[in-house]
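Morning F.,

Quick status update on the modeling queue. The single chain you submitted on Monday has been processed. Sequence for confirmation:
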Amino acid sequence: MLFLSIAFATIVGGHLLLYRFALRCLEVAHPLARGGILVVFLLLSVSFIAAFFLLRWSETPLTIGLYKAAAVWFAVFVKLLLAVGATWSIYGLLRAAGSTAVSFRMLAAGCVLLGVGWALYGFWSALHPVVRRVELTVDRLPEPWRNKTIVQLSDVHLGHFHTAAAMERLAGRVNALAPDLVVITGDLFDGMIDGLPAFAAPLSRLKAKKGVFFVTGNHEVYAGVRRCLTIVEQAGIRVLSNEVVDLDGLALIGVAYPGIRSQAELCGLDLLAAAGGPPPPSVLLFHTPSDILRPTMRDSRSATYWRPDTSFALARQLGVTLQLSGHTHRGQFFPFGLLTRWVYNGYDYGLHREGGFSIYIASGIGTWGPPMRTGAPPEIVVFKLKPAEEPHHQVQPGPARKSGSG
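Structure tokens below.
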């Protein structure tokens, strides 16, 4: 409630700032016109939150349409607010320097056009994921896994913006990469959709030589875990729920959101204890970039969001080679990436390697709320596994493709 109150107050305050900015730029003087513009901005300020709860209450064409429109407006609002800040900052500096060559209205028009252009680019970017290639050296890599590839998909958020047709296109792009293994690290579904069965067919198109595996995220909890798992299983995707499986000498560990209370809850732990030798290489799938040990407090989700444990203590204790996570969206669009970096202590995106433990946090494929990506492009992550004697890991961004996933 505290977070919602702060967020609501910030959004309303931002809209009032836009209102004052609009009055100055448009030079509106008539009281009725000013009052009408104020009403419009106040309605816009509550539109996204109201549409979100309306959609949770009832999914109809009207509520879905309202939600889509409100989500798009919220993204544009953020960019316009940045444009307002840029206008006042530049204008203030010019005035301080004694310059009067640029009028406030001309400067405001330029900044607003740039803000709208940035928003349009963000909408385009959200629908055009890049292929991110990561070469990773692994100690004691089994022969069947040398130079093999693992594709990670995270935070696809199938729903009202990212549709079944988008999943068809995404499956085609993944299959074209000829992966040896595909893993989906949570938030496959958006969390408030009635049309889940429509996604079974496009999901079933995902193919990999050693299989396709899935672990749940927080949005599966919102949508109903059983409902989501039914669709995933119908698609022929293997669900890992707190268990370890052996894939040709590589241990694949799947932990369901929000984590486990102790390692005793993991089935198949014996696969991590090699007789008379070091444990086999292992890949841990967990939705959030935090330790898999579930907090003992009542609201473990609160801890995941605002007090995440980035020690990865239990993962290290288990001898995990590589943890694959998502959840953060890398902030999804500026300036929210600054918040995710702060909350997750720098573990909000990319590859981090410390000794024998590595973690990769994907920015995800889809979006939550506004279908926008700026500064955090959606990505399909392709890991190529190399034995330790070969050169160390490199990260190479792939080009954006014309076919979308949105």
